[in-house]
Amino acid sequence: MSILELTATELAGQVQSGSLDPESALDAYFGEIQKSESHLKAFLLLMRESAYAQARSLRAKRAEGRTLGRLAGVPMAVKDNLLIEGFPVTCGSRILQGYRSSYTATVVERLIREDAIVIGKTNLDEFAMGSSTENSAFQITRNPWDLERVPGGSSGGSAAAVAGSMALAALGSDTGGSIRQPAGLCGLVGFKPTYGFVSRYGLVAFASRLDQGGPLARTAADAALVFGVIAGHDPKDSTSLVSSNEMNAHGLELPKDLNNVVVGVPKEFADASGVDPEVTQALEKTLEVFRSRGARVRSVTLPHVKFALAAYYVLAPSEASANLARFDGVRYGNRASERESARAADADSGEGELIGLYKRSRTEGFGREVQRRILIGTFALSQGYYEAYYGKAQRARGLIVQDFEKAFGECQILLAPTAPTPAFKVGEKTDDPVAMYLSDVFTIPVNIAGIPAVSFPCGFSRAGLPIGAQLMGPKGSDRRLLALAQFFEEATEKAFIRRPSMGKAKKATEARE
Known about the structure:
Shape: globular
Radius of gyration: 22 Å
Number of helices: 18
Strand content: 5-15%
Oligomer: single chain
Order of helices and strands: HHEHEHEHEHEEHEHHEHHHHHEHHEEHH
């Protein structure tokens, strides 16, 4: 078995035992990066020098007879909205070009403490606002299964890096599905934890009451391994839950059967329009697997979930408007040149130079989608409109939370598609923001409710593209969801855990060109 075929658990075990040198693991992954990164464009920053320094330190630690961490030698990528001291963080935006982090995010510290090796920072939709990783200010990331298609977003760089065998696992952030949707489109496991179970300290905020970091990996066991490392209370994060320490456990307890499990299928998701028939078919086959192992399946209703998308696109932009106000070219962010700012001030009909500086800096620094969401959020929070929009969205949120609580009184878990379609083509939805927003129709309700959910591969389209399903559970059921995802993998003999052929993807693209 080649190094690239090892799971994170297997690779860490071999590094711990001394049968695999951590530098050899890096050689394999950096070799794959050299072959594929020019096509995939998954990374914004490669940290080769520091990665090999970590590997040498790890080898010395082992030679001294010291115990190695749970992620010993595992090459991991980190989404570029997580801070690492001394390294750039761009959030996929020009407004942060040149900025270097002054501290390290708690989740990254926890990875390093368990001897994971961070190999680079991945591309994302600007400030995590998008569903395709086409909104990055620097490059468009491609799907390893088909280079003409998107990897999903906003954690598309992390998903492409893992699916393209350029990292063994990765961290992303999930505000409305930004871990699960790209995991679904790239054939990976993507996990969004219960809100508050993973620290947000050092994660550049998009929407503070919705953002949650989590792992992308090839298998549920690997996702659980990373989750066990990054989860836990953090006194530096005021939203961190004290009870989340119990999530920091080893391994998953897999059920022998599903005789006591009731799987709910939300009627509103099953009847949703715009769902690709191949996605529906894959979900039905997934339900059959659960039924064949003893689970009972029943229809449940989430009557207010139809408001989730509309509520999200008031709540998230409102929080973004507040969070991104600091990036004005004075407190944070690139500053427009004085000459251009003065020129802008002259055009502002008497507004002062400072306002001109703000306008020019933010116009230059923020992309179109970020500007759109800031304007929506600012409008929703403005005097005279706050109650009409933000207040109503908050009430809708409360009703959605109640719907999920009632549903979990009838079943232990809910099953739904991760995305309504397999990966769509680059450029297909860029001119239609509403069509792009609908890519997250099944993932957004989870963030609204603050519950955990895991996306796992459950099938392939006729074109050979991965299809994902997601399991949702009540708050605190994180490890149960991951265990059920692993149970599905083993029940299907890991039929849907595959690595794409980059060679085929390149040839297909060249033939079309």
